[in-house]
Amino acid sequence: MTTSDAVASTAHGASAARLRVTVPSVADRVAAELRLQLAEGVLLPGTRLTESAIADDLGVSRNTVREAFAELAAERLVVRLPNRGVFVASLGPGDIHDVYTVRRFIEVSAIRAGGSPGRVAAVRAAVEEGRAAAAADDEEALGTANQHFHGAIVALAESRRLDTIMSQVLAEMRLFFHKATLDAHFYRGYLDDNEEICAALEAGELDRAAGLLLAYLDRSEEKQSAVHGD
Description:
This is DNA-binding GntR family transcriptional regulator. One of its GO terms (molecular function) is DNA binding. It comes from Arthrobacter ginsengisoli. Keywords: DNA-binding, Transcription, Transcription regulation. By secondary structure, the protein is mainly alpha-helical. The chain folds into 2 domains: 25-88, Arc Repressor Mutant, subunit A; 93-228, GntR ligand-binding domain-like (Four Helix Bundle (Hemerythrin (Met), subunit A)), CATH 1.20.120. It has helices at 3-22, 26-39, 51-58, 62-74, 93-113, 117-135, 139-155, 160-180, 191-202, 206-228; strands at residues 48-49, 78-81, 85-88. A 3-stranded antiparallel β-sheet has the order 1-3-2. The longest helix has 23 residues, at 206-228. The radius of gyration is 20 Å and the shape is globular.
């Protein structure tokens, strides 16, 4: 083997090693699915999660589900109670402030930088999804549309790392939004805000869109803190 062949072989091996590292494991994919179910409001705070049921539903081993639970527990999305099992977490006021701090950094930065026409269209699609849900009096779908709106804002940045961070944030948001949604019209209050933010984004008024979003997040945190500070 020539020196150049050896270098090429080494480079190929290193590339393959990096690929193996970056490809999500089955447990990672199970955790991502459960995280999505949390964000979409399918799994409610306090719900008991069983390895066998999830393994059967997703067609994976119980060991894989156990690994996924460990990942979600590290993110404080689930808790393992001795002799009782694994449960969806219930978050408190301290978690709320932490989540909104993260949201201010990534959402406001993402919208201030703008995005491609396709990414902006996805923000508009989430607004229209919310309006359709409101017209149908479907509060759960309205909540999911609001999650899609904020996910689409972060997706403007076209960063897989930010999308991954936001997937956890969206899951946490839905967990503490459940208490607030005892008010049947909780999400309707955000529809006009979402429209105004989206319109500014579409007009290329990025600083204005960022300012509107920041004010929105401040109001939202105050509302959540009031609900959970009882």
